[in-house]
Amino acid sequence: xxxxxxxxxxxxxxxxxxxxxxxxxxxxxxxxxxxxxxxxxxxxxxxxxxxxxxxxxxxxxxxxxxxxxxxxxxxxxxxxxxxxxxxxxxxxxxxxxxxxxxxxxxxxxxxxxxxxxxxxxxxxxxxx
Amino acid sequence: xxxxxxxxxxxxxxxxxxxxxxxxxxxxxxxxxxxxxxxxxxxxxxxxxxxxxxxxxxxxxxxxxxxxxxxxxxxxxxxxxxxxxxxxxxxxxxxxxxxxxxxxxxxxxxxxxxxxxxxxxxxxxxxx
DNA sequence: ACAAAGGACTTTGCGGTGCAAAGCAAAAAA
DNA sequence: TTTTTTGCTTTGCACCGCAAAGTCCTTTGT
Lengths: 128, 128
Fold this sequence. Notes:
The structure is a homodimer.
Chain A: H1 19-29, E1 35-36, H2 37-44, H3 48-60, E2 64-71, E3 74-81, H4 83-110, H5 117-121
Antiparallel strand pairs in A: 1-3, 2-3
Chain A binds a DNA duplex through residues 1-2, 18, 20, 37-38, 41, 47-54, 56-57, 72-77.
């Protein structure tokens, strides 16, 4: 990875390339006003400790904002995607797509047929 | 990730989810008779040490076979995708695709337009 | 009023791993 | 013969994901 850092794989930002953070970011992608800690935990199927740690990591990278307030008398943490986080994550997703297309090409070439994501990965792309 | 292990993200096999191994497997996907250590190293842009370690990991997972022979008087390591490795990696790629589609849906929903991978990630998918 | 239970997180400990640098053995070059 | 190059493997360390434990407050019995 170090010798030619201009391939699509080198753009796979480590910060997002972790399954737990991938799912966190995907959840946040669908929101406008952020999500509470507990909702996010349940939606992602993560343990409290895990989510806490990953959120800290994402906050350090300025991908999210973490607002602490109260709901009634209980503490309530709200997680919100930052604009930079949204932009960076979209860039990461595009890099992922490039990786996928590259692999699809390889398989197609080996089988001597034209590259076709649909026939490689099934009919789901028909929706696009 | 531990609470509901039935989401597409939980299928992102760690063994393949490492950028270096992702590129290694993608390279192998295009081959029939395997690749030499040095060719693979150059194609992937990895250092010797790095490639060696990742190959050992992939071999332990039975994703590849490593054949050692001689070319003339020099040692020559040939790396070959196993059938299981090919199958498992294809499954991983499908999981990746599901993640991508999920994210695309989230973005589309937030913007109030129908899900469309093409418009999210650019025109490259038009080839499919 | 007091104790026990529950909620909302955070911190700790550790096993695993990616990476670069160093090491090694054989062959080719000088 | 000494040096350099080739073709790898091993070592060391710093980082990191994860589960378990801990903290602090609130609510619910009794």
